[in-house]
Write a structure and sequence with these properties.
This protein is mainly α. It has one domain. Helices cover 68% and strands 0% of the residues. The chain starts with 10 loop residues before the first helix and ends in a 6-residue tail after the last helix.
Amino acid sequence: MKVKIGTQLEEEVFQDLKVAAAREKKPISELIQVAVVTYLHQKNQASAVKCGLQRFLDKPPVKINDEDFKQIMELDYYDQ
């Protein structure tokens, strides 16, 4: 079910929107819907990544003693 909404746009944005709708032979509402759905999808993708990163950062730090740390840091990656 579609819902009627009211909003305000800058005049230049609205003129560009009208031209794009005419060029694509689609109603303005369809272009707006596609833009909003795309925006929301991108926001959801970004928040999912952020949540994963947040879960990683929330884990306790790795416990390692100084000697093991120095040994790991001196290890040449390409010699393995």
